[in-house]
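Appendix B, record 7
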Amino acid sequence: MPGSGAGDEERMARAALTRVIEPGDEHGGRWLRELGAGELMARLTSPEHREPALTGASARRLAGYRIRATGVEPDRDLAAVAAVGGRFVCPGDREWPTQLDDLGDARPIGLWVRGRSDLRKWALRSVAVVGARACTPYGAHMAACLGAGLAERGWVVVSGAAFGIDGSAHRGALAAGGATVAVLACGVDVVYPRGHAELIGRIAEQGLVIGELAPGDHPTPSRFILRNRVIAALTRGTVVVEAEYRSGSLATARSAQKLGRFTMGVPGPATSGLSAGVHALLRGEGVLVTDAAEVAELVGDIGDLAPDRRGPVLPRDLLDPLSARVLEALPARGAVAGAQVARGAGTTADEALGRLYELHSLGFVERHGDSWQLTQSAIRGSNARRGGT
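Structure tokens (predicted):
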């Protein structure tokens, strides 16, 4: 069992409730907060006339809860997760990530966890990388680079184990020998998608596989959307790599924004529909990032800075200011007298002459009689500095 926190009765009742209350159900979350897990299960499994009514839900919806509560076997579910090397983590346990409490009544009842590592400690320094399932090669490359780069910097990469961006982010982290967490929309003993059986197995072995659904439960479209709130709440920030306007990845980003987490996006081609949702995010509160260093700078601690970005250092960039002015005073074509160079540089003829000889020794200029002109290499360097051809 996980460390001290929830008692056996509380744990058993919460495990049972994961089969009764759907993820993100705020009606159930309010009852759970007001009554406690044991009392809520008692009311759902007792004849209606013997217990005080549960308020806030229609009679039809309440009947659905009662039908689900009939015949649940939490001890069997706990044994099933233990059989795959897992456990059930509850609020109050040492391993419970308290940032999930920010979800209020929509927080998970508990989390089913596979893997040997401590979820709470891993979540303290984690970043979500999410995006399109049908991604482009560019998107897959960027997600893998982000996963590897973040892992190399000691960050835990969190995603949803789906095809496309999710899988690429997980693989990037694993390839770098780093830590990664897969948040599933089904039971942690269920392989979904089937094509990621090997990947999910590797994550369970080297990282963590977590979910709100009891062992054996299957995914549904609504469960995928609701799963995204857990990814957003668990991490310090969410990076979106390729997403259309209507995308579950954007739902993760919106959840992150509501929770006050960092929201980031990797830009793509302006003509790509797969990047349209990311670009809309970046026009709002999202922050543009292009690599792991920029992500770490945003979500990390003071001093966790990305390197300065600049073009290549050209030889003329190393000149002192006066020598640079003298060099700029020379025309791109043809030779001019030293006195003309001095006027253009705003200095004396003697000072200009001294700098011209220095520039000659460095290969920037050449002398023709009493005149000076740029070398061909200096002309090419000048074009490169100005962005010319």
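Remarks on this record: The radius of gyration is 31 Å. The first strand starts at residue 86 and ends at 89.
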